[in-house]
Amino acid sequence: MPLMFSYSGVLPAGAALDAPVNHLDVTPTVLDLVGLPVPAHMRGRSLVPLMTGQGPLPQQPILAEMDGETAEDGGPHWIAPSTHLYAIKENGYKYIHAERLPADDQLFAMQPASVFEGQNIIAGEPETAQALWQQLQTSFTIPTEFTYLPLVNR
């Protein structure tokens, strides 16, 4: 999904960048653009160095979440799974976790020329799946005033 920024006199006009970023990067970027500090606890990173040509940003995993809940009348909102899905894409792999249905978890080796998943290889690469599961769980941990609430365990 495209992300656009405009800030006359600061960002170059008409520039188009082909780098994956995260919605968590928006707030740190805006704070950086207006000269305010980014709180240390805030997730995300400023995209200003990338947008102003100061260099590439370090790669970070791509995270996704899909709400698969059904409508109050029991029918689906749309064609979707009946559970929440969480995904992480990193180092040529995509791992998808189905909350409360760990048997439905999937691991794919992403092909460079295609965004489509091929064969689920989770059974053949349990170490890769476990490492991505741990990173996914850390990424979607919800900070609260009292404790951290993790995703439902596999």
Could you characterize what this model shows?
- The longest helix has 14 residues, at 126-139.
- The chain starts with 25 loop residues before the first helix and ends in a 5-residue tail after the last strand.
- The protein has 2 domains: 1-56, no CATH class; 62-149, Arylsulfatase, C-terminal domain, CATH 3.30.1120.
- With 154 residues, it is an alpha+beta fold.
- The protein has helices at 26-33, 48-51, 126-139; strands spanning 62-66, 85-90, 93-98, 106-109, 142-143, 148-149.
- The strands form 2 sheets. A 4-stranded antiparallel β-sheet has the order 1-2-3-4, covered by helices on one side. The chain has a two-stranded antiparallel ribbon with strand order 5-6.
- The chain is built from 3 helices and 6 strands; from the N terminus they run ααββββαββ.
- Strand 5 and strand 6 (148-149) form a beta hairpin.
Compose a concise summary of this entry:
This protein has 154 residues and is an alpha+beta fold.
Helix-strand sequence? HHEEEEHEE
Quick check: average pLDDT? Answer: 79
How far the N terminus sits from the C terminus, by CA atoms, comes to 30 Å
Trace the largest sheet across and list its strands. Answer: 1-2-3-4
- Give me the Rg, rounded: 18 Å
Give the count of structural domains: 2
Kindly report the CATH topology of the largest domain: Arylsulfatase, C-terminal domain
CATH architecture of the largest domain: 2-Layer Sandwich
Stretches where pLDDT falls below 50 for ≥5 residues?
none
Portion in helices: 10-25%
